[in-house]
Amino acid sequence: MAGLLRRELLVGMLALSGLACGVSRVQAAPASVGVAVISLAGDERYAPRRLERAYPGHPQGRMLDAARLAAEDASVELEMAGLSLKVREVLLPDVQALPKALGELKAAGIHHVVADLPLAEMNQLVRTAPAALGGAMVFNAGLDDDALRAESCAAHLLHTYPSRQMLADALAQYLAARAWRKVLLLQGPLPGDQLQADAFNRAARRYGLKITQTRPFKLSGDPRERDLANTRLLTGEREHDVVAVMDSNGEFARLLPYATQWPRPVVGSNGLMAAAWHPQWERNGGPQLSRRFQRLAKRPMQGQDWAAWMAVRAMGAVLVDEPSASVAQQLKRLRGAAVFLDGFKGPRLSFRAWDGQLRQPLFLSHIDGVVGLAPLEGVLHPTEVMDTLGVDEKESTCRARP
Amino acid sequence: MRQLVAASLTLCAGLALAQSPANRVYVSSEKDNRIYVFDTKGERLSSIEVCKRPRHMMFNPKHTQIYVSCGDSNRLGIVDTASAKMTDQVAVGDSPEIFDLSPDGKSVFVSIEEENVMAAYSLETKVKLFEVKTGGEPEGILVMPDGKQAYVTSEDANVVHLVDLVKRKVVKNIRVGKRPRRFVLAADGKELWISNELGSSISILDTQDQHVKQTVDFKVQGMRAADITPVGMALSPDGKTLWVGLGRANHVAEVDVATRQVRRNILVGKRAWGLMPHPDGKTLYVTNGLSDDMTLVDTAAGKAVRTVAVGRVPHSVLVQP
Asked: By the 8 A CB rule, do B298 and B282 touch?
């Protein structure tokens, strides 16, 4: 079985490199490289009522517009290399439809995928795509799960969206820089809340924050559960500088700012948050990018949109650098930090070799604007200061490399 | 009354001779919607209210007017230097940034950031003459001295477009470093120097055969390549030295044009981008976009001698000796 898989892969790659060589020889008509944006019809994140809530940090629409914008933005540069990117939408009715959809992509010669999927579907796509497509490059542009960068990582999986650990480190750096070191931690009952809390606790240890107390919260009107649901009772502890709320859903966290017992800022899932993008980012061409996206999608650009845009820009950048490289070579170049990207956040960006994560500055922002940029000034790292955010090479458990 | 007459006579004489007030340094402030006026020693004298988000500035050929592109009001403001007032405006496209004048001073070529075009306007009739499509976020513009060709950078596409101004189209795309920003014409017009903000470098283009013949990389002790973001450049009056604002590295690099060697790096303010030397070559004026100030550099000593506050987000600087 493994042998068969390998052979199929090899054949796929040979076919692909043949195609790519052909492309580089024929300069006249731009050859189009297909990009599939795969999403799920019933994805709860995009349920209409859920989108109306527009909780900060959550996506406010699917990634297709951002991917199309990136293909358009990259077109002039790609044209010079005799190429163009053609974005194709794949909307799965359910996860059972994935194999058939991948079969159709293979028939269309598509190897580049932006995954706009929940975790379970994402894992299935990552497992099956290389064999099904005959070589694949999959971008995770919306999930912060650290497991995707660790035990579930893969050689062909790249992440343009920051990991939860990166987001937590950015927040912790900011709190440490302000000397707001005493943190009251409120944690919800969902598995996602636990993952947020794990990342925050690790970041707190890293940057010397003190968790004065950890208290569980629950959305409830039941008077018998008052101590779990009442924001004043939950925040009565006297010693803290800030209240950090770990709420992967967003509903409880929204009720917390200005509703605490003491006048303390709320951070984490509401109030001050770490984010991959903010529509009010004013520098490095940010307003231009946000405006282009707003015009196309009729909504402000969110972190997930930025990550989807960045994913397609990364495909464009590696194609421009080496128009005839195979998908395997492209992966090697991207994960070998041989390709630099302009993310409109200041420094040039590249992917980490050890887990395929895009290293990037993160914004410390509230709903209305950006107040800080991580890595914070004064945070040091022996080789690359952006690697103070998230899992560094020595800590990484990912062993899958292209 | 006699004084008034005398004053107006002097004014008329001044106008007749097309003379601008001497000993002036003008700095555009993006967030204050003003041009601040200093003397050449860095003493602040006054300010001129202009259109919204003033960025790049140029003198007209006689130095009696300043053209200023206003990114948020989509205008090119025209400031009369004698009266220190904005006296006229030309409507341009959405979000103008850098521009250049035709050699006769009658037309202006503007990069229109939001529309991805280089647009040409007549300064006499204020009519748009034509536009040429560019890559994403066009920025630097340079019209060649013969007026027949222009270069435009596209920040997002990492290319320099060579535009034929007679045929009104792009005739060549030249790939340079990451996020190309501005131009300086050096070596008597034979070389075009292009700053690559995210490439931490300068590409040197041969203007005869339109090929990048050399790349100058910048290094600053104690800083990583990613922190060095060159944007603004200025050539010394003798053409032998090029100064490059290294942006986030907070230094200005002094480059020997002939040998391409970086002679030294001069510490200035935060995100140094706008640069202009005094015509005597002894002082370099540097605007620091993130520390809201301007540094005066003694070019012989290679040291900052004075830093003065200029208002929020200073962009460009002009010097009238």
From this structure: yes
